[in-house]
Fold this sequence. Notes:
Mean pLDDT: 83
CATH superfamily: 5'-nuclease
Number of helices: 5
CATH class: Alpha Beta
CATH architecture: 3-Layer(aba) Sandwich
Number of domains: 1
Strand content: 5-15%
Order of helices and strands: EHHEHHEEH
Number of strands: 4
Helix content: 40-55%
Radius of gyration: 15 Å
Amino acid sequence: MIARQAFNVSVLTKIEFLGWNKHTPEGFGKCRQLIELANIFHIDDDTAEKAIELKRRAKIKLADAVIAATALLNNFKLVTRNVDDYKSVTELQTCMISRNFHECSTIRTWFPGLFRA
């Protein structure tokens, strides 16, 4: 078992996560298994309109605007290593995860099969 519960991600998060070019073959396989457990939120017209507003108002990158729009429209807290990317989106709740997220006991609880003992 990789995860104890489902979680939510934007389709852009899926692309960024699986498209990272430094995965080992084993790591990529585990990451794909992990993402397959997620509820993937695709870009609909409401998300696109919110992303346009955020990109113009908050002056953030396209992917960040779509990810933030997805979180805002669905009342999600955004968990990210890059909270600074979202600081201009003041209405967005963010939670920073460290670069060493594998050391975080919460992450280990949520995704027990992702890490070696």
